[in-house]
Specification:
The structure is a single chain. The protein is mainly beta. It has one domain: Jelly Rolls, CATH 2.60.120. The chain has two helices and 15 strands. The chain has helices spanning 13-17, 54-57, and strands spanning 6-8, 26-28, 32-35, 40-44, 49-52, 63-72, 82-86, 95-102, 105-110, 113-118, 125-134, 145-149, 152-157, 171-173, 186-194. Strands 1, 3, 4, 6, 11, 12, 13 and 15 form an eight-stranded antiparallel sheet that branches. β3 and β4 form a beta hairpin. The protein is globular and about 40 Å long. The two termini are 17 Å apart.
Length: 218
Amino acid sequence: MKPPIFWSRLGSSADIATSVIGENPTEVGTLTYDAVYFGNGARISDAKYFILTSTTLDQIRSAGTVEFWAKHFTAPAAGSYVRGFNDQYAAVNYFVLYWGDVGTMQGWYYNGIALNWDQVINNDDIVHYACVWDKAGIDGGAHTRRVYVNGGLVASTTSAILDIDATATAIWWGSDPESGGHASDTAYDNLKIYNYAKSNFDTRVIERGGMDDLVAAI
């Protein structure tokens, strides 16, 4: 298995400052850290978030995978949606994940096109998510985008996609509330980003995720 281009445990400010693999994110505000799946995760709330730069984003504009564990401390309020991650220009929706996009529908936007799935989020739910894309077709097939929840495929599309728009220059995890004054009160754990489309997440319950041979010393 090819290793990720970015991997952070996100369990502390020290984890944020020193990634296992890839660039070191920038922490904005003073994050708190709460138990998620493998241990603590970075808790995102209004004006407290972290940023990955174009160093990472430029490697995944045509194909990639973003996977992570999340604990939703507070479910999105009715009629409001909040960002899981966004591309810094969220009004254009180049690369944005919304909790509570429409009611119980969650939404992942790619160059302005939504891919939605129905998932009721309850307070304190701990869930594994993976957003996957490849404009040439995932695994050589017809799907260009997929969403997996707890390892299961919940949404897909065969619609043609382009590279993530060049206007998107960074990935912000969290940041300000998107509507209705609600911030994303979610903690993220074990974030990994790959520059190819993964289609199997059986190793999600292993922190190193099957990379023992590659990172045996970690």
